[in-house]
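Same chain as my last thread, 193 residues:
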Amino acid sequence: MEKDVATLLSRHAEALALFTDRVHAVRTDQWDDPTPCTEWSVRDLVNHLTAEQLWVPDLVTDGADIGEVGDAYDGDVLGSRPRAGWDAASRAARRAFAEPGALEQTVRLSYGETPAVAYCAQMVADAVVHSWDLSRAIGAPERLPEVLVSFALDEVTPYAAELAKSGLFAPPIEPPPGDSHQTRLLALLGRRA
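reply #2:
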C-alpha cells in the first residue's frame, strides 16, 4: 500500500505541475478565449480546476462534507491574479493529500463516502484531461506525458459511461483505430484530438 500511495502522490504532483505549466503559459489576451469545454473560456477552465483544488484541504484535512463547505468556492475564485490563485490552491491541495495518513481516510463527496485514494486519483485524471483542454485552447503542446495519460485512462475507463450520464461530460466518441492512449482517453471523455 505504501508504494501505491507514493506512486499516487507522485502522479498527483506531476499532474498539478503539468497544469501549472499551462496556466503560466496563458497570455494576457487569452483568458477569454474558448476551450474544448464548450461552456468555458480559458479563465473559466482555470477557475474550475482552482475551485476543485480549494475543496481538497476542507474535505481531506478538515474532514468537512460538501454541505459544510457549501458555496464557498462557487463563482470566481481567481480574483485579479489568476496564476497566483491557481498556484496557491494547487499547493494547498498537494499538501493536504501528502499529509501523513491523509490517503487512508474516507472523504464525503457529493455522491457519498469515498476513499481518499480514489478522490486523489480522480483529481489526477481531472488535471490531466484539463491540461489537454488548456493546451489546445492556448496553442501549447498537446502531447501529454504518457505516464499521466496511462494513469488517467486506467482511472476513468471504469466509470466513463457514468460521467456522460451525469450531463457534466460529453458522451464518449469512437477513437481512430489503433491510436494512442491519449487519443483513447480524450475520446472516452468526448474530445477529439
